[in-house]
Design goal:
Blueprint lengths: L5 E9 L5 E10 L4 E5 L6 H7 L8 E6 L2 E2 L5 H7 E4 L12 H10 L5 H14 L15 H13 L5 E5 L7 H13 L3 E5 L3 H7 L2 E6 L2 E6 L1 H5 L2 H6 L6 H4 L30 H10 L8 E2 L5 H12 L10 E5 L5 H15 L5 H9 L6 E8 L9 H21 L3 E5 L7 H7 L5 E12 L19
Parallel strand pairs: 3-8, 3-9, 6-7, 7-8
Antiparallel strand pairs: 1-2, 1-4, 4-5, 9-10, 11-15, 12-13, 13-15, 14-15
Helix pairs in contact: 3-4, 3-5, 4-5, 5-6, 12-15, 13-14, 13-16
Length: about 450
């Protein structure tokens, strides 16, 4: 049996006022695992996490880190191995600048100045925050503070990360960046969280705590499909699981196959009105130059196309299609953009030609939206087909926004050029309408003032 990164044997903890928090927890976590600790408030999540690097010591039982028992005598070595990220980043950031804050730990390790500088830069680059180095922590956004707090821990080069509610208080874009970061880290990760949707993306194992005990230990798919377990532990299924269809025996069948026609005529739908208003009002068109990795994963991309397929389609002819441009083909798209500019303006400068091609390399996910406007049976007017495509695109944009991703549309005269039509193999009657760009938001713009209804509504 390989040595565990973390092992708990009969761990109990009772607070000084007599409140029992952990009641005989046994647990083994292997090196490299990403493990979520979930449960209702008061279940013992934060208390368990605080034992991993000796912030709390066991009332009884034992905690082992890399085979080393956690005691007062071993705290220095334990804390070198286990980096702890507090729930509130403000509890962790206290120096005048981000650089000073991340350097605080390494500077107490008797390292030379050059080594400290290298360590700090590497940690900030790992979390995508190197550009914040000279900023004051109190001027950062919630997501930026969280990234810097993680960088401060990474600078100590721990083999294990303990993160307490890392996604709490983050906006969708900040949460999406955090998920990308957590997925990229090689360390053993133990994450106490209420964000079960994040767990689905980040963790391959889940511990459910209830009343200070481990109620269940398994994969996210197994545990989140157990409705009775979730009810008993005062949890709700994540959004992805809550949309699943229960079988007749009460088990979870997962989402309906996409090709099936759902029969919802007699189903009582929940009230989504408030959520819908917030989702629509908060979505922005994000320029591709403000999008960065990570883009949508395979499951999210599939969900975007499911959303598109729900668009109104009179005649059921699907009068549109989407063409993904993978990273390996972006150079071909860049060449088409550049050739389109030269075709339109033979006097274009090399700088303008280069700028035209550069547009192909911005968003993590780039798709061309194509409308089918030629002959079809039944005969559906072109305007109605374009309307169907617009609805499909809007469905995808809102779905991406709900996932915490940024998205935007781009168009231009290049879309009707012969180089682009040739690259995408557009048939007669097909029109390239726009490019759909999706990724993680690097920077949001200020929200625009939306027009009042009286500006565009009249009565006959």
């Amino acid at each position: 049996m390989s040595q565990a990164a973390i092992e708990l044997r009969g761990l109990t903890h009772t607070y000084p006022d007599g409140t029992p928090a952990l009641r005989g927890v046994d647990l083994r976590i292997l090196p490299g695992e990403s493990v979520a600790v979930v449960g209702a408030n008061g279940a013992g999540k934060s208390t368990l996490l605080a034992h991993l690097n000796g912030l709390l010591l066991a009332s009884s039982g034992d905690v082992f880190v890399g085979g080393m028992r956690v005691t007062r005598a071993t705290l220095v070595l334990v804390r070198a191995a286990v980096g702890y990220v507090f729930q509130d980043a403000d509890d962790q950031l206290f120096m005048p600048t981000v650089q000073d804050d991340v350097a605080f730990g390494p500077s107490h390790q008797a390292l030379p100045a050059q080594a400290i500088e290298t360590c700090v830069r590497a940690a900030l680059e790992a979390v995508g925050a190197a550009h914040l180095m000279a900023r004051a922590p109190y001027r950062l956004s919630g997501g930026e503070k969280r990234a810097v707090a993680i960088a401060g821990v990474l600078a100590m080069q721990p083999s294990i990360l303990a993160l307490d509610e890392p996604s709490a208080g983050l906006d969708p874009a900040g949460r999406r960046r955090l998920i990308g970061l957590l997925r990229s880290l090689p360390q053993t990760r133990v994450i106490a969280t209420h964000d079960l949707d994040m767990v689905l993306e980040v963790c391959q194992r889940v511990l459910v705590l209830h009343d200070g005990r481990v109620e269940a230990d398994g994969t996210p798919d197994e545990l989140f499909a157990d409705r009775e377990l979730l009810r008993r532990c005062h949890l709700e299924p994540p959004w992805g699981r809550s949309m699943a269809t229960p079988r007749r025996d009460g088990s979870d069948a997962g989402p309906e196959p996409h090709a099936q026609r759902p029969d919802t005529a007699d189903a009582a739908l929940p009230d989504f009105s408030e959520l819908t208003q917030v989702l629509i009002a908060s979505r922005q068109n994000i320029s591709p130059k403000h999008l960065q990795e990570p883009g949508p994963n395979a499951a999210q991309l599939d969900a975007l196309f499911v959303a598109a397929a729900a668009a109104p389609d009179h005649g059921e002819i699907t009068p549109w299609r989407f063409v993904i441009v993978p990273a390996a083909k972006r150079a071909l798209l860049a060449q088409a953009f550049a050739s389109a500019l030269v075709e339109r303006d033979p006097a274009a400068t090399p700088q303008q030609i280069e700028a035209a091609g550069e547009k192909a390399h911005r968003a993590p996910l780039l798709m061309l939206a194509v409308a089918r406007l030629g002959a079809a049976e039944p005969d559906i007017p072109a305007a109605e087909r374009l309307l169907s495509l617009g609805c499909a695109i809007q469905n995808m944009l809102l779905a991406a926004h709900a996932m915490g991703l940024g998205c935007g549309l781009t168009s231009g005269r290049a879309l009707d050029s012969s180089p682009l039509r040739a690259l995408f193999g557009l048939a007669d009657g097909e029109a390239a309408v726009c490019c759909v760009n999706v990724g993680t938001v690097r920077r949001r713009k200020a929200g625009r003032i939306r027009p009042a209804a009286k500006a565009f509504v009249s009565s006959l």
